[in-house]
Amino acid sequence: MLNPKTKIQGSRIILTKAEKSFAMAQNHFMAFKESITELAPWLSWATPDYKVEDSYEYLLQCSQKWNKGEDYTYIISDNSTSFMGTISAANIHESDKTMEIGYWIATKYAGKGYMQEAVSLMEKEFFGQGINRIVIYTDVLNLKSANVAQKRGYVLEGISRQSNWDKTEQRYRDRNVFAKLKQDFEKEKQEA
């Protein structure tokens, strides 16, 4: 079983294990509400009827999944902001040494390199834990999310056609499949 750190310090951001608390639920909810226009096309849960109670329930589930070793969700913050977004290690297959990274960031922090740094911190932590392959899925129309994967050196391996049902648009959507191997990560470190 993986044993990731509960706090990972970067140069500009901090990743902290997502914990259930009403204060954090309020922070999560406020960032969501401020960013709903940008998040709604890509995240099925990003709907106008999402409530602060849903944020609390989400954080509760994150904590439970962490304790079971199923998923590892971190809150992204910096020294002056308690909540910028989240990043998760999910769909972990320890026998195959694979996992996925999923993320979202509040609109006011987007485009400033914070998510690239968060992905970099996750790579260091989980490749260091023995993971061999990390996958990032992005909707083919979500260019900002795809940009994060590409800037971090992920290879576009293909498109998973009609792999997601969009309940708002009532249609299937395609996803990019980006991946990075541990050997790619090690090569980047040597070249830096």
Layout: helices, strands, pairs:
Elements lengths: L6 E3 L4 E4 L4 H18 L12 H17 L3 E6 L7 E9 L4 E8 L8 H15 L4 E7 L3 H9 L3 E12 L4 E11 H10 L1
Parallel strand pairs: 5-6
Antiparallel strand pairs: 1-2, 2-3, 3-4, 4-5, 6-8, 7-8
Helix pairs in contact: 1-2
Count of DSSP E strands?
8
Low-confidence stretches: none
Measured as a percent range, the helix fraction is 25-40%
Q: Sum up the overall morphology in one term.
A: globular
Mean pLDDT across the residues is 94
CATH class category: Alpha Beta
CATH superfamily: Gcn5-related N-acetyltransferase (GNAT)
Q: Beta-sheet strand percentage?
A: 25-35%
How many domain regions? 1
Radius of gyration: 16 Å
| Succession of helices and strands | EEHHEEEHEHEEH
What is the terminal separation in angstroms? Answer: 30 Å
**What class, by secondary structure content?**
alpha+beta
CATH architecture group name: 3-Layer(aba) Sandwich
CATH topology descriptor: Aminopeptidase
The largest β sheet comes out as: 8 strands, mixed
Strand order of the largest sheet: 1-2-3-4-5-6-8-7
Number of helices: 5
